[in-house]
Design goal:
heterodimer, A: mainly alpha, 2 domains, two-stranded antiparallel sheet, globular, B: mainly alpha, two-stranded antiparallel ribbon, 2 strands
Chain lengths: 499, 489
């Protein structure tokens, strides 16, 4: 029941926030903050709870559309709980970052923000594939509105591209889901879209690979991985700060979650046959996007490309499909969620102050805004994978696991860490070091971080340090869930690997 | 053959609508009153749909011409309600027309008679009878503001174009029917290769195929399937908005029910050539509709091209009826038609509320900033457009889900791929309209909002929006209704 409560708090909070705008334009943000904080507190009750024999901490299964055997099936295990926490935490941060930035039509903004988050919570908890697809699409429309209304100079193009990429690949996934459900009908004699039922479907045969690819394309578009990544730099650079935070921190993770929960367990044999290609794509994505990031002058586009690059490690870890690699993928998701969100917020707050994102115009900010510079340095170092911070743990584990599965691709991917240092430090050098000159912009509003900003950057720093110094507390949470996923596919995977 | 009361009872919805038409004619003769005419029309159509609902257990062949079963009653309710909604929307639209307004509702009611006859027909005679009744009235509705001083568009051009092409396509259909009659010796919808047909007398398969192709190309004209779609954008653009809405919803739905019934009963899809032609028509309609809509700036033309594409989507499920054993594909057609009627009616309804017979808001740019000028209408319009695009939470998504399911079940992979590509392109122009509504309010907009604000029209649109969401989130009840109805066809 708590899962329904969590999702409906956000849906209702969104509606309330929209209505409350009529009374006071400052009310929506308060309501939005209250809703996400409430969610975060409620989620804490799920942390560390015993999963029991079924493997699910809490589950809810009600009939929805009996004609097709579709049920309203929500359930969470340790993996979902971690991602739920990330969603709610970044939800709070996103509301904070929008607090003074969104002045125009705040009611509708917070409505969209909360509905996006609600859709994401649904994606992380749905165990019926129809329901999963439903939430998968539900989170798109509010995000489209966020980019299209509150975005920057080229918002129409960016919002449209975002929507088209995710929607079209989503339809491919829908066909795959339906084909899987139809196979279930043929093999077992009744319709079902339930994850646990569909796990039993035998997809062997030429068509199994195509069905798997439907899922793969949808998830790697969201993740994103080259060649499906081109929507992301546009969407990120045009979105308002809170939108970028949600996009980078949470929405990308739904793709990774989909791969771990659905794409591989539903099609273990096909996935393992496909793994070398997936891992090659991952390695290519890591190196190529790191290179492209280095060539950017727009600071938000740069961070966007680094996101794609880092997500390559997640894909690498998932298709290595062993426990260490999966733990690494999950840690990378969490750590990248915080570090990328923080970097986008820094870029956003710079843009809010000086109205440009062009790094060629910037330089020497350390003297003007020392606190901001220190924060930026911290998150850049986190992103480049400095030991002691969360990203290092994630990427290290992902590479360690992938090493057992595919040596050449792991070696190639490791070079990504070197490139990451180059572009991260380059940002610091370009923006914060060098000569200060305000020739290209109006610096009258260039002031240092205020207390509210320091508070949420501080919280994110704390999170990264915790993940870096004591990752075990996170690894323990997801271990049982990942082991269960591995156990379910072990038999088939081992035969494929031996051949 | 004598008619008994038992024969007449299933015809109650049809009789009520006919009586309404007679009443309207008398009322217009005695005393003209726009309000009274609308009231009679609305009550008559409402009663007809209530009667159809009450009869829902009926399954009876009334005379060889009409079949009254759950399927026909289901669509009778849909068409009667849609016609009722359109007459409510027409009232403010026509209010400023400087000409007599009452006959419009008479035409609308007579057109509805035609639609109900078509929906209930399993015989070529009643098909043609219903079709011509519907079309004849539609020519009048399309050309209605003709003598008004300030008529919005080109009603005469639209009407004549529709008349000529409609007559041509009817003659195609008639020729096809004649050939089928020569083959089977009966005018009822029956299998072309059933045991009853004497194979010694009957002609070769090629003959049947020609007959079927003639018949289906005539139907494709009426349904505006590519490559027979050329008339659609012009007629949609030239007609007054409520007439366009009628043509696009009731007109299309009635014709599609006939097509579905005929295809299922006649086993037309046993011929590979027919399947191939249908597949090509479906793919062409989807691609042509969606691609050509990209080039338009006129809302009515966009919706016209979008309806071409939607008819193509539906045809995929029709093709799936032969390949699959289960009834899912028939259900898919049924549910999608319902969804299509709801969302088209909503989309045209919003445009109609903002327009009047003297001035139509049919350029996309007219809708700039609607989200901030009139949030409620903009929300309804956004809902309808997202539903046409097939986004979840709306009925359009469930409809598309049905279509995909029918396609997957029958393994029509190539057509499904076309469907995905077409929907992807379609998203672009639907979102373009949504984006336009999100833009800041232009400075000159105030003068362009229609003067008449009608609460009843807002009520109709709100009901449609609620239907859109309820059927999009919890369609289980309607699904089981559709399932039982589809089993009978």
């Amino acid at each position: 029941m708590i899962l329904v409560v969590l999702i409906s708090i956000l849906f209702l909070g969104g509606v309330l926030a929209w209505i409350s705008e009529r009374f006071d334009s400052k009310l929506p943000r308060v309501i939005a903050l209250a809703a996400v904080l409430l969610d975060l507190l409620l989620m804490l009750s799920l942390v560390g709870a015993d999963a029991g024999d079924s493997g699910w901490i809490v589950a809810l299964n009600a009939q929805w559309l009996p004609r097709f055997g579709i049920s309203f099936h929500l359930a969470v295990d340790g993996l979902s709980v971690l991602l739920l926490l990330l969603t709610a935490f970044l939800g709070v941060i996103a509301v904070g970052s929008a607090w003074s930035e969104i002045i125009e039509r705040p009611g509708f903004f917070y409505f969209n923000l909360l509905w996006t988050l609600a859709g994401v919570l649904g994606v992380f908890t749905a165990l019926d594939l129809f329901l999963f697809f439903f939430f998968w699409e539900v989170m798109l429309i509010p995000m489209y509105f966020i980019i299209a209304i509150w975005g920057h100079e080229n918002k129409n193009y960016a919002a449209m591209k975002f929507f088209l990429f995710t929607q079209v690949t989503g339809m491919l996934m829908l066909i795959s889901i339906l084909a899987l459900a139809y196979f279930h009908y043929v093999q077992f004699g009744f319709f079902s879209f339930d994850y646990l039922d569909l796990l039993r479907v035998d997809t062997s045969g030429a068509i199994g690979m195509w069905i798997m690819l439907g899922f793969f394309v949808a998830f790697t578009t969201k993740l994103p991985i080259v060649p499906f990544h081109s929507w992301l730099p546009d969407a990120h650079s045009q979105a308002p700060t809170a939108g970028s935070v949600i996009l980078a921190g949470v929405l990308l993770k739904t793709g990774a979650y989909g791969l771990i929960r659905f794409a591989v367990p539903l099609f273990p044999a096909e996935s393992m046959a496909f793994a070398p290609i997936a891992m090659a794509l991952a390695a290519f994505s890591i190196l190529y996007c790191a290179k492209v990031a280095f060539a950017q002058t727009d600071i938000k586009r740069l961070i966007a490309y680094t996101s794609v690059s880092h997500m390559g490690f997640v894909l690498l870890g998932v298709y290595a499909w062993n426990e260490i690699a999966l733990q690494g993928a999950v840690m990378t998701m969490l750590a990248h969620g915080l570090s990328a969100a923080a970097l986008f917020m820094l870029a956003g707050s710079l843009q809010h102050r000086i109205h440009t994102r062009d790094m060629r115009d910037m330089g020497g900010f350390w003297a003007r805004v020392p606190r901001m510079s220190v924060v930026a340095l911290f998150f850049c170092i986190a992103a480049l994978g400095m030991p002691g911070l969360g990203n290092f743990v994630g990427e290290f584990l992902a590479l360690l696991g992938a090493f057992q599965a595919n040596l050449p691709m792991t070696v190639l991917a490791t070079f990504g860490l070197i490139f990451a240092s180059v572009y991260s430090l380059w940002v610091i050098q370009k923006v914060f070091h060098g000569e200060y000159s305000s020739a290209k912009f109006d610096d009258s509003k260039l002031i240092d971080l205020n207390r509210r900003e320091l508070a949420y950057f501080g919280a994110m720093m704390l999170g990264l340090v915790w993940m870096g110094l004591y990752p075990q507390s996170f690894l323990d949470l997801s271990a049982a869930a990942l082991q269960a996923l591995l156990a379910g596919t072990q038999e088939i995977v081992s035969t494929v690997v031996q051949n | 053959m004598t008619m008994t009361f038992d024969d007449l009872l299933p015809l109650l919805p049809l009789l009520i609508v006919s009586t309404t038409a007679v009443l309207l004619m008398l009322q217009i003769g005695i005393r003209r009153s726009h309000g009274l005419t609308v009231a009679i029309t609305v009550i008559g159509l409402l009663l007809a749909s209530v009667a159809a609902t009450l009869l829902s257990a009926t399954n009876q062949q009334v005379t060889p011409l009409l079949i009254i079963d759950q399927y026909s009653l289901f669509f009778t309710v849909i068409c009667a309600l849609a016609a009722m909604f359109i007459s409510i929307l027409s009232f403010p639209y026509l209010a400023q027309l400087d000409d007599d307004k009452e006959e419009y509702y008479l035409l609308l009611t007579v057109a509805t008679i035609g639609a109900i006859v078509m929906i209930s027909s399993n015989h070529f005679v009643s098909t043609i009878l219903g079709l011509e009744t519907l079309s004849m009235s539609l020519y009048g509705m399309v050309a209605y503001p003709l003598h008004s001083k300030a008529s919005a568009k080109y009603p005469l051009e639209a009407s004549v174009k529709y008349l000529v092409l409609s007559a041509v396509s009817s003659s195609f259909m008639l020729f096809g029917m004649a050939l089928i009659y020569a083959q089977t010796g009966t005018l009822s919808f029956s299998s072309l290769t059933a045991p009853g047909v004497d194979t010694a007398v009957s002609l070769s398969d090629g003959y049947s195929i020609v007959a079927l192709l003639l018949l289906s190309s005539g139907m494709a004209f009426k349904l505006s399937l590519a490559p027979f779609h050329m008339w659609t954008p012009d007629v949609y653009e030239g007609s007054p908005l409520p007439a366009t809405a009628y043509l696009a919803t009731v007109g299309k739905a009635a014709m599609f029910v006939v097509l579905l019934r005929f295809v299922v009963r006649s086993d037309a899809l046993q011929f590979d050539a027919v399947i191939a032609v249908f597949s090509i028509i479906a793919a062409l309609s989807i691609l042509a509709g969606n691609v050509l809509a990209l080039l338009q700036d006129n809302l009515k033309r966009i919706l016209a091209y979008s309806s071409i594409a939607h008819m193509g989507y539906l045809l995929i499920a029709v093709i799936a009826t032969f390949v699959a054993e289960s009834t899912i594909s028939v259900e898919a057609v049924t549910f999608y038609l319902l969804a299509y009627v709801i969302m088209s009616l909503g989309a045209f309804g919003v445009a109609s509320v903002l327009s009047s017979s003297a001035q139509e808001l049919d350029e996309i740019s007219d809708y700039e900033g609607l989200f901030w000028r009139n949030p409620w209408l903009a929300l309804i319009f956004t809902g309808m457009l997202l539903s046409l695009a097939g986004i979840p939470l709306t009925v359009g998504f469930i409809g598309k889900f049905y279509l995909f399911f029918a396609g997957v079940e029958s393994a029509l992979w190539a057509l499904l791929l076309v469907l995905v590509i077409g929907s992807g392109i379609g998203l672009y122009f639907y979102l373009r309209i949504v984006y336009c509504m999100l833009l800041p309010v232009p400075a000159t907009s105030e003068s362009r909002v229609a003067a008449v604000v009608s609460l009843s029209s807002y009520g109709v649109l709100t009901i449609l929006l609620l239907l859109l969401f309820i059927l999009g989130v919890y369609p289980a009840a309607v699904m089981s209704l559709v399932e039982t109805a589809a089993a009978l066809i």
